[in-house]
TrEMBL record:
GO terms for cellular component: membrane; paranodal junction. Keywords: Cell adhesion, Cell junction, Disulfide bond, EGF-like domain, Membrane, Phosphoprotein, Repeat, Signal, Transmembrane, Transmembrane helix. GO terms for biological process: cell adhesion. Residues 583-625 form the Fibrinogen C-terminal domain. It is found in: Cell junction, Paranodal septate junction; Membrane. It comes from Oncorhynchus mykiss. Residues 1-23 form the signal peptide. Residues 547-584, 933-971 form the EGF-like domain. This is Contactin associated protein 2b. Residues 25-176 form the F5/8 type C domain. Residues 182-361, 366-545, 768-932, 993-1163 form the Laminin G domain. Belongs to the neurexin family.
Length: 1271
C-alpha cells in the first residue's frame, strides 16, 4: 500500500489529468449580472408595504418606485424571490437598502430551488448560513458564495433589519448560464451503455453524474465481468455506497465498499465523481472527497458487454438481483469521456426499457415543514367525532420530542418520540381518569423518514410505524373518543405561551421535519396554511426541510463514531487509540525514544509514528538498552516491529534475512531474470540480498568475494548446502512483504527462508532542533494545511521572557503561538468569527533555560492549549460560524510580521503529525543554527546513581562508567551469582605502575591508586540463604580493613580497623536475619570517625549513625575454615569503583580477576526507575560522588567464597601472622590522622583476625591464600 502522502499526490495528478477536458469551461469567469435584466414580474414577495414598494423595484442601484422593496409586515416570515428564468450557476450576491430611507436589511438567509417549491437553504461550514447585510441604505454589500449553486429561483429571507426603520432591500444575483441534459428515471427504465469491445480491461475510470430523488434506495450504476470484477454505485438508506471488485486475489478479499453522504433523498441535486487509477480511488460527493485504495492484487477492472445507469442490467448475474432501480432524475452522466445523457438524447443508446422516456424532472407533491425548538403548527379537524385518525411522516436526530397533541372533549391525546420510539398517551376523564400508554418502533431518530399512523375509536386504539404490520400495536380501551377539532404538531402554543403537557419539558417541542400530514384521513393543504387560509403556525419554515446531518462529513477522525442531536455532534473514541473532541490526538507516543524518556523500560508498546496523521497506532518491541542486535551498545532506543504493523509508513533500520539452501538458486538467471526475488515497498521486485545493495544482484559473500564457489555470487547458487544471510538496510525498499522462490522443480533442490523483524533505531524527529540567536531570525516553511483540524506540538527553552514561536497568516485568518510573558504561553487564531486567544500561566518561570512542552489543538468543536502536561485551557467553538482556517502565507517559525522574535531553542516541532525539519532549514538560514546545546540542563536528572550526563548534537546520553549500573539511564543493576569457590578480586594500582597502561584507550577513566583515606562509601546489594559468610572485604598492606559479614544467625556485622594497633570497631545489627533469600541494600559511608549506615530491607529504609570509639573486647581469630558466600551480589560500588561490573563487562579494562564461576544476575533487586516528569518534580536528585582523598598504599577488594582444608589454613595462618608482625613494625606511623578504634586489636594474631565477631560460637577465619601483600 502506498503511504498517505504518495497516494494523495498520485490521485491529485490523476485528477488534474482527467479534468483537462473540462478545465476551459470551468475556468471562464462566472460573474454576469442575472437579476437586473429581468422583468418586474420575475420579482415576487411575501407581501408589499404599498404600491411603490413592490418586489419589482428591488433591483440593485435602481431608484424606481419607492426605491426598493419593503414588506407589509416587518417579521421573519417575509421574503423576496427572483425567478432567473432558467437554471443558472450563481456565484455571489449583493444587497442594498431601500434608496434614501431608513429601511435596510442587516442579516438574511438565502434559499434556492429549481421549481419554486421544496426550498433549500444555502449552507456554509456545515450550518444554514446567515449573511451579513447592510448598515445604511446606499452602500452595496457583496458576498462571494463559498460554493456555487445551480438554481432557477432565489429567495432572500430577512432575519434582522434597521432599528430606525423597517425591512428594505435591493438585490443583485451574479453568475452564468448552466445547461445539462436531464433524464427522468421512473424505476423501470435502465440505460445500458454497450462497450465497443466485448470485454473491457480498464486501468483508469472517470465517472460523473448528478442525481436527485425522494427515494432512499436505488442503483445508480452497475457494471460487472465474468471473472467477478464489478463496480456498483447504489443508494442505501439515503446514503451512497460505492463498491469495487478488481478480481479475486489469492491473499485477501478484494471487495471494497465505502459509504458517503446522508439525507440524499431530499429531492435536491447531488454531484458524484468517481476517479480510479489502478487501485487508487477518489470518490467525491458534493465537493467532499474520500481517498481510498481497493483491496486485492489486481489493477484492471474487467467488465463485459456494458455498464448500466439507473438499475441493474438485464445481463446481470442472478446473485446481483433483488436491488431496487433508481427513481428520480440524473443529469450530466459521463463515462470515461462519453456523455451518456447526450447519447441517450440523440438515440445512440438503446432505451427500450423505459415506458416513457422524458428529459425533464417530474415534480414531487410533498410539502415539507421544518420545525425548531419554538415551532408549532395548528390544523383543524372534525369536532365531536368518535374516531381519531392522524398520520404523518417525520425525520429527526433528536431521540425525544412532541409530534402531535390534541384535546378531546373530555381528555387529551399526545403522540411523541421517547428515546427513539413512538409513544402514545391517551387520557380520558368521562367517569374516572383512564390513562392508556402504547409505544412502537425503535431507533427512529436516525434522520430517515418514518411514518406514524394512529387510529383510535371506541374501545380500540392502533399504532403503526412505517406501514409495517409487524410494528402495529393494538390495545383494547374501555372508553369513548370525542375529538376536539384542533390538532397541534411539533409543539403546543396558545394565548402567548406553550401549553403544559404530560410529557417532560425536553419532549414538549419537536426539532426536525414533517410532511404528508393527514387529519381525519385527509391530506392537509399546507399551501393554504402558507397563504393564511387555514390553520396557523409559529416559527415553522414551510416547503423546506433544512435538517442537517452533522456527522456528514464526519469530523470524528481515526474511525471515531459520530452521534448527533439537532444542533451538535459528539465523537466516541473508544478503541481507536485517539482522544479529544474529534478523536484527533493520539494517546500513544510516536517512538520508542519518547517512551524511553518517560522512564519506560524495554518491552512491548503501542506507538503512533505520525501522531494525528492517517497511520494508526501499532505495536512494537522497544529495546531501550542495546542497538537492535547490531553488536554494539548505543544510547538510542531501538524497536522491533510487531506482527501486523503498517510498516510501509515508518521504515526503520533493517530487515534481517537468512537463506538456508541446498542446490537452490538466489541470483542465477532464467531468461534474463533471477529465479528468486523479494518484494518491498510499492510492490516492487528486488534482486539483491542481505549484505548487498540495490542494483547489485549479489549476496554478501559476492560482495566480500568469499562465496563457496567463486563462480557464483551467492552460496545458495552452488550445489552445496550453505547459507546466505545479512541485513537489508536500504530504507526506500523496506519492509520485505513477500519473497518469491523459483527453481522449485529440480530434483534435490531445497531452500529454507527466514525473514527477521524490521528494526529501527533512535528517533531523529524527537531531537530535531534549531537555535534562534537574534530577535529577527526565523525559519519559513510551506503554508500550514489545517482547515478543520490542526494540532501543533513542540519543546522550547529560552532565557527570554517573550517571543513568537510560530505564525501563519491568511487574508483575514491567522494562527499564532507565542511566549507572552515569563510565565504565559498564548495560542491565538481567527477563522472568520473574530479573534480567539487561549492563554495558560505557569506557576514557575518559563525562561529558566529548561525544556518546556507546548501542545495546541484546534478543531470544529474546540480549541485546546496545554503546557508541560499540567496547565491547560479549553475553549468551545461557537455553535454557528466559520469553521475553516484558510491560510495563504508561508509558515514562519521564530518571528514574523514585525512581531517580537523568539530567542532560544525549539525542537520536535510537529504540525498535524508531521515533524518539520528545523535542522535542515537552519543550515541555510542566517541567524539560526541547527541543533541545540544544553540538553543536560533539562534532562541530566534522568542519569541516575552517579551517571554523568553527556551532551550530544541531537540529545544526550548517560555515562555509567563510574557507576555499578548499566542501561540508558544507569538504572539497571549489574550483579552476579556466586557459587561455592567463586571470587572477584580488584587490585588498586601503585602510582608508579600507572603510566605503563595509561595509553590504553578502553581503560577506565578513573583508575584508583594507593593513598590514604579519611572518608569512603561502600554500596552493594545482596541476597543469600547461607550464613555465616563474608560479603565484602577491603584491606591494605597495613592492618587497616573494612569487612561486612553475616554472622551464624544471619544478622549483619560491619568491622572497621583504621589503626592496626587497636582492636576493630564493630557494628552489629541484631534486628533481622538477612540470610533469608530476599534482596537487601547496604550503604556504608564514613567521614573520619562518623559512620552512617543505610539498610533497605523489603523497601523499608533504616538509618543508623555511629561514632567510632575505643573498644576493649578483642576476639582472637579461630583457626577454622572460612565459610564461603553463596548467593547474589549487585550494585557493588566503592568510591566510584565498580569491581563487579568491571569483572562482568569485557569492554572495561581494569585490574580485576575472577576465580570460579560467576553468572551475571541482578539478584532480583527492584530496579531504580526514573521519573517521567520534569526535573522540578523528580524526587530522584543525585548528588555528586564523594571526592577521592589520597588512599592507603595498596587495597584489596575481595568478594569471596572458598572452603579450604583445615590443615592448610593453619599453616598459612602461622606464616602470615609472622609477616603481619613485621609490617606493623615497619608501618606503625602512617597517615596524618588519628583514629580511636575498638580496643583489643593488639591481641589479635593478625589484621584479618579483627573481623571476627565478638561471639565464641562464630568460628570463621579468613583464608590466607586470598590475600596478597606488598612489602
Amino acid at each position: 500500500m502506498l503511504p498517505g502522502p504518495e497516494l494523495t499526490l498520485l490521485l491529485w495528478i490523476f485528477s488534474c489529468i482527467s479534468s483537462l477536458s473540462s478545465a476551459s469551461s470551468t475556468s471562464r469567469k462566472c460573474d454576469e449580472v442575472l437579476a437586473t435584466p429581468l422583468s418586474h414580474t420575475a420579482f415576487t414577495s411575501s407581501s408589499v408595504y404599498s404600491g411603490g414598494y413592490g418586489a419589482g423595484y428591488a433591483k440593485l442601484n435602481r431608484r424606481g418606485g419607492a426605491g426598493g422593496w419593503s414588506p407589509g409586515d416587518t417579521d421573519r416570515y417575509q421574503w423576496l424571490q427572483v425567478d432567473l428564468g432558467t437554471r443558472k450557476q450563481v456565484t455571489f450576491i449583493a444587497t442594498q437598502g431601500r434608496y434614501s430611507s431608513s429601511d435596510w436589511t442587516t442579516q438574511y438567509r438565502l434559499l434556492y430551488s429549481d421549481t419554486g417549491k421544496n426550498w433549500r437553504p444555502y449552507r456554509q461550514d456545515g450550518d444554514i448560513w446567515a449573511f451579513s447585510g447592510n448598515s445604511n441604505s446606499e452602500s452595496v454589500v457583496r458576498h462571494d458564495l463559498q460554493h456555487a449553486i445551480i438554481t432557477r429561483y432565489v429567495r432572500i429571507i430577512p432575519l434582522e433589519w434597521s432599528e430606525e426603520g423597517r425591512i428594505g432591500l435591493r438585490v443583485e444575483v451574479y453568475g452564468c448560464s448552466y445547461w445539462a441534459d436531464v433524464i427522468n428515471f421512473e424505476g423501470q427504465g435502465v440505460i445500458s451503455y454497450r462497450f465497443k469491445m466485448k470485454k473491457m480491461k480498464i486501468l483508469k475510470d472517470v465517472i460523473s453524474l448528478k442525481f436527485k430523488t425522494t427515494a432512499s434506495n436505488g442503483v445508480l450504476l452497475h457494471g460487472e465481468g465474468q471473472q467477478g470484477d464489478y463496480i456498483s454505485l447504489e443508494l442505501k438508506r439515503s446514503k451512497l455506497l460505492l463498491m469495487i471488485n478488481l478480481g479475486n486475489g489469492p491473499l485477501s478479499d478484494p471487495v471494497y465498499g465505502i459509504s458517503v453522504g446522508s439525507l440524499l433523498d431530499d429531492d435536491h441535486w447531488h454531484s458524484v465523481i468517481i476517479e480510479r487509477y489502478r487501485r487508487n480511488v477518489n470518490f467525491t460527493l458534493d465537493r467532499h472527497t474520500q481517498h481510498f485504495r481497493t483491496n486485492g492484487e489486481f489493477d484492471h477492472l474487467d467488465l463485459d458487454y456494458e455498464i448500466s445507469f439507473g438499475g441493474m442490467p438485464f445481463s446481470a448475474k442472478p446473485s446481483s438481483g433483488g436491488r431496487e432501480n433508481f427513481v428520480g432524475c440524473m443529469e450530466g452522466i459521463t463515462y470515461n469521456g462519453d456523455n451518456i445523457t447526450n447519447l441517450v438524447k440523440r438515440k445512440k443508446i438503446d432505451t427500450s426499457s423505459f415506458r416513457n422516456l422524458t428529459f425533464s424532472c417530474s415534480e414531487t407533491h410533498s410539502f415539507p415543514l421544518f420545525f425548531n425548538a419554538t415551532s408549532f403548527l395548528r390544523l383543524p379537524g372534525l369536532s365531536d367525532s368518535d374516531t381519531l385518525s392522524v398520520s404523518l411522516s417525520f425525520r429527526t436526530w433528536n431521540p425525544s420530542g412532541l409530534l402531535l397533541y390534541t384535546a378531546l372533549a373530555d381528555g387529551v391525546v399526545e403522540v411523541g418520540l421517547t428515546e427513539g420510539k413512538v409513544t402514545v398517551y391517551i387520557n380520558v376523564t368521562q367517569k374516572k381518569n383512564m390513562r392508556i400508554d402504547i409505544s412502537s418502533g425503535s431507533g427512529l431518530n436516525d434522520g430517515q423518514w418514518h411514518n406514524v399512523y394512529l387510529h383510535a375509536l371506541e374501545n380500540c386504539a392502533m399504532l403503526t410505524i412505517d406501514g409495517d404490520e409487524a410494528s402495529t400495536v393494538r390495545t383494547v380501551i374501555p372508553i369513548q373518543i370525542r375529538t376536539g377539532g384542533q390538532y397541534y404538531f411539533g409543539g403546543i402554543y396558545t394565548d402567548g405561551y406553550f401549553l403544559r403537557t404530560n410529557t417532560p419539558p425536553a419532549q414538549r417541542s419537536f426539532q426536525g421535519c414533517m410532511q404528508l400530514i393527514h387529519v381525519d384521513d385527509q391530506l392537509a393543504d399546507l399551501v393554504a396554511v402558507e397563504q393564511g387560509n387555514m390553520g396557523t403556525f409559529e416559527n415553522v419554515s414551510l416547503d423546506m426541510c433544512a435538517i442537517i446531518d452533522r456527522c456528514v462529513p464526519n469530523h470524528c477522525e481515526h474511525r471515531g463514531r459520530c452521534s448527533q442531536t439537532w444542533d451538535s455532534f459528539s465523537c466516541s473514541c473508544n478503541g481507536t487509540g485517539y482522544t479529544g473532541a474529534t478523536c484527533h490526538t493520539s494517546v500513544y507516543e510516536q517512538s520508542c525514544e519518547e517512551y524511553k524518556h518517560l522512564g519506560k523500560t524495554s518491552g512491548t508498546y503501542w506507538i503512533d509514528p505520525d501522531g494525528s496523521g492517517p497511520v494508526g497506532p501499532f505495536k512494537v518491541n522497544c529495546n531501550m538498552t542495546v542497538c537492535c542486535g547490531f553488536g554494539k551498545f548505543c544510547a538510542d532506543s531501538c524497536c522491533y516491529f510487531a506482527e501486523g504493523s503498517p510498516l510501509t509508513w515508518w521504515v526503520g533500520r533493517a530487515n534481517e534475512r537468512h537463506f538456508y539452501c541446498a542446490d537452490s538458486c538466489c541470483c542465477c538467471f532464467a531468461e534474463g531474470s533471477p529465479f528468486t526475488w523479494w518484494v518491498g515497498r510499492a510492490n516492487e521486485r528486488h534482486f539483491y540480498w542481505g549484505g548487498s545493495g540495490p542494483g547489485i544482484q549479489k549476496c554478501a559473500c559476492g560482495i566480500e568475494r568469499n562465496c563457496t564457489d567463486p563462480k557464483y555470487y551467492c552460496n545458495c547458487d552452488a550445489d552445496q548446502t550453505r547459507e546466505d544471510a545479512g541485513l537489508l538496510v536500504y530504507k526506500d525498499h523496506l519492509p520485505v512483504s513477500q519473497v518469491v522462490v523459483g527453481d522449485t522443480n529440480r530434483a534435490g533442490s531445497e531452500a529454507k527462508l527466514t525473514v527477521g523483524p524490521l528494526r529501527c533505531q533512535g528517533d531523529g524527529n524527537y531531537w530535531n532542533a534549531a537555535s534562534f540567536n537574534t530577535p529577527g531570525s526565523y525559519l519559513h516553511f510551506p503554508t500550514f494545511q489545517g482547515e478543520t483540524s490542526a494540532d501543533i506540538s513542540f519543546y522550547f527553552k529560552t532565557s527570554s521572557s517573550y517571543g513568537v514561536f510560530l505564525e501563519n497568516l491568511g487574508n483575514a485568518d491567522f494562527i499564532r503561538l507565542e511566549l507572552k510573558a515569563a510565565t504565559v504561553v498564548s495560542f491565538s487564531f481567527d477563522v472568520g468569527n473574530g479573534l480567539v486567544e487561549l492563554s495558560v500561566r505557569s506557576s514557575t518561570p518559563l525562561n529558566d533555560d529548561q525544556w518546556h512542552r507546548v501542545v495546541a489543538e484546534r478543531n470544529v468543536k474546540e480549541a485546546v492549549l496545554q503546557l508541560d502536561g499540567h496547565y491547560k485551557e479549553v475553549r468551545p467553538a461557537p455553535p454557528q460560524g466559520h469553521t475553516r482556517l484558510e491560510l495563504y502565507s508561508q509558515l514562519y517559525v521564530g518571528a514574523s510580521g514585525g512581531q517580537r522574535g523568539f530567542l532560544g531553542c525549539i525542537r520536535a516541532l510537529k504540525m498535524n503529525g508531521v515533524t518539520l525539519d528545523l535542522e535542515e532549514r537552519a543550515k541555510v538560514t542566517p541567524g539560526v543554527k541547527p541543533g541545540c546545546s544544553g540538553h543536560c540542563t533539562s534532562y541530566g536528572q534522568h542519569c541516575r546513581n552517579g551517571g554523568q550526563c553527556m551532551e550530544k548534537y541531537n540529545g544526550y546520553s548517560c555515562d555509567c562508567t563510574l557507576t555499578a549500573y548499566d542501561g540508558p539511564f544507569c538504572t539497571e543493576d549489574v550483579g552476579g551469582y556466586f557459587e561455592s569457590g567463586t571470587l572477584v578480586r580488584y587490585d588498586f594500582l601503585p602510582e608508579r605502575g600507572l603510566p605503563a597502561i595509561r595509553d590504553v584507550k578502553s581503560l577506565s577513566p578513573l583508575l584508583p591508586t594507593e593513598g590514604n583515606l579519611t572518608q569512603e562509601e561502600l554500596v552493594f546489594s545482596f541476597s543469600t540463604s547461607n550464613a555465616p559468610s563474608i560479603l565484602v572485604y577491603i584491606s591494605s598492606r597495613t592492618q587497616d580493613y573494612l569487612a561486612v559479614v553475616l554472622r551464624h544467625n544471619g544478622t549483619l556485622q560491619i568491622r572497621y580497623s583504621l589503626g592496626g594497633l587497636r582492636e576493630p570497631f564493630t557494628i552489629d545489627l541484631d534486628q533481622r536475619n538477612m540470610a533469608n533469600g530476599q534482596p537487601h541494600h547496604i550503604n556504608i559511608s564514613r567521614q573520619e570517625r562518623n559512620v552512617r549506615l543505610q539498610v533497605i530491607i523489603m523497601r523499608t529504609v533504616m538509618w543508623f549513625y555511629f561514632s567510632i570509639k575505643h573498644f576493649s573486647a578483642a576476639v582472637l581469630i579461630e583457626k577454622y575454615n572460612t565459610p564461603g558466600f553463596v548467593g547474589c551480589l549487585s550494585r557493588v560500588n566503592f568510591n566510584n569503583i565498580a569491581p563487579l561490573k568491571a569483572a562482568l563487562r569485557s569492554g572495561i579494562v581494569a585490574p580485576v580477576t575472577t576465580q570460579g564461576i560467576l553468572v551475571e544476575s541482578n539478584c532480583g533487586a527492584s530496579p531504580l526507575t526514573i521519573s517521567p516528569m520534569a526535573a522540578a518534580n523528580d524526587p530522584w536528585h543525585m548528588d555528586s560522588g564523594t571526592p577521592m582523598e589520597p588512599f592507603i598504599h595498596t587495597v584489596m577488594f575481595l568478594i569471596m567464597s572458598v572452603v579450604l582444608a583445615g590443615i592448610i589454613a593453619v599453616v598459612i595462618f602461622t606464616i602470615l601472622c609472622t609477616l603481619v608482625f613485621l609490617i606493623r613494625h615497619m608501618f606503625r606511623h602512617k597517615g596524618s590522622y588519628h583514629t580511636n578504634e575498638a580496643k583489643g586489636a593488639e591481641s589479635a594474631d593478625c589484621a584479618d583476625a579483627a573481623i571476627i565477631v565478638n561471639d565464641p560460637a562464630f568460628t570463621e577465619t579468613i583464608d590466607e591464600s586470598k590475600k596478597e601483600w606488598f612489602i
